[in-house]
Amino acid sequence: MQISMTTLQSMQSLDLCAADPADHVLRVCFTEAGQNWCYELPDTPPGGLSSMRLSQFLQEFEYAMNKRQQPSSSFYIDLRERKVHVTWLNAHAEALEREARMSRLFASRISGGQAA
Q1: Dist. CA 24–CA 34, nearest whole Å
Q2: Hey, which residues does 27 pair with through a beta bridge?
Q3: What does the DSSP 8-state code read for residue 105?
Q4: Which end of the chain is more exposed for a tag (fewer CB within 10 A), N or C?
């Protein structure tokens, strides 16, 4: 399934963003098509999200980071951005592991405990 990145789910015009985001929210600002935009992401993902949903958040976050990036600049502006990215990547990995365990359990139950 190809996800169109023409409009991020959490992308807003910078003019509509509050003066400062809450302390627990990371804001990435960038320019696209002659307009200023911001993408906001909580420092930690809410619990219970599927790997697919976490992947969508990560794709959008990385899209905003790449749009902001200048040819000679670093991907991250500060340590906080790196920490938030790592936190979301870890949550994604944990969700993938959880879903893999559930799939193996389901496969085992429908096969009657016999190897497929």
Answers
A1: 29
A2: 40
A3: H
A4: N
Put residue 74 in one of left, alpha, beta given phi > 0 → left and psi -120 to 50 → alpha.
Answer: beta
Both tokens of 53, joined, read: 């949903």
DSSP secondary structure letters along 3-41: PP-SS-TTEEEGGGS-SS--TTEEEEEEEETTEEEEEEE
Task: Record the tokens describing residue 111, joined without a space.
Answer: 């096969």
Name the pTM for this structure: 0.81
By C-alpha distance, which of 14, 2, 15 is closest to 67? 14
The share of the chain scoring above pLDDT 90, in percent, equals 48
Q: What is the pLDDT of residues 52-81, one digit of tens each?
A: 999 999 999 999 898 887 666 778 888 999
- Which amino acid would we find at residue 39? Y
Residue 21 exposed, middle or buried by CB count within 10 Å (0-12, 13-18, 19+): middle
Helices and strands per DSSP (H, E), number in the chain: 2, 3
Q: Which two tokens stand for residue 71?
A: 């040819």
